[in-house]
């Protein structure tokens, strides 16, 4: 079994669990799926990658709120809103100069989710971060299953080799 198949298996199971949790606790289901996307698209794996993606996701939510609040302060001046959006988008990219904020897609996904949820940043943030944790669990559990499967196959092969060696040794002693 390969890693993709195992990750697909655990993703299917945990996606069902996420769907139930989202409905049961009033979370935003699609935002959780975006959390998976952030996790799966991260070029850095492990807890470091999880931390970077979580931080960039959070900053995206923050930057979206800056844009929304700035636009609310100047409702009749749509041109100011465009300038603010441009300036904040620049900052969203330039923050990647800092190593812990270097995953630009996470920032934009966090901001986009906040816009899509009409500024309900608390619920978006909770749903995104839980989705991110689910995505991490999907990856880790899939890889764990793959390793277990590979280990079982290796032990089976070793057992066969030992049995063949015993049989060969028994035959050579008997002749």
Strands, helices and their partners?
Layout: H1 3-25, H2 29-41, H3 46-73, H4 78-94, H5 104-116, H6 121-174
Pfam families: DUF1097 (PF06496)
Protein name: DUF1097 domain-containing protein
Organism: Rouxiella aceris
Structure keywords:
175 residues; mainly alpha; 6 helices; 85% helix; DUF1097 domain-containing protein; transmembrane helix; transmembrane; DUF1097; membrane
Question: What do these coordinates show?
Answer:
By secondary structure, the chain is mainly α. The chain has helices spanning 3-25, 29-41, 46-73, 78-94, 104-116, 121-174. The chain has one domain. Helices cover 85% and strands 0% of the residues. The radius of gyration is 24 Å and the shape is elongated.
Briefly summarize what is shown:
This protein is mainly α and 175 residues long. The protein is 85% helix and 0% strand.
């Amino acid at each position: 079994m390969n890693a993709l198949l195992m990750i697909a298996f655990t993703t299917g199971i945990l996606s069902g669990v996420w769907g139930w949790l989202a409905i049961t606790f009033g979370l935003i289901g699609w935002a959780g799926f975006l959390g998976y996307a952030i996790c799966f698209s991260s070029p850095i794996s492990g807890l470091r990658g999880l931390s970077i993606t979580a931080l960039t996701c959070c900053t995206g939510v923050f930057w979206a709120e800056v844009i929304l609040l700035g636009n609310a302060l100047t409702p009749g001046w749509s041109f100011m809103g465009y300038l603010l959006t441009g300036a904040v988008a620049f900052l969203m990219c330039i923050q990647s100069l800092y190593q812990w904020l270097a995953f630009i897609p996470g920032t934009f996904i966090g901001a986009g989710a906040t816009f899509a949820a009409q500024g309900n940043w608390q619920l978006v943030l909770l749903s995104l971060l839980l989705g991110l944790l689910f995505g991490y669990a999907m990856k880790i559990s899939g890889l764990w299953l793959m390793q277990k499967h590979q280990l079982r196959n290796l032990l089976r092969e070793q057992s066969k080799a030992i049995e063949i060696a015993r049989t060969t040794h028994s035959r050579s002693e008997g002749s």
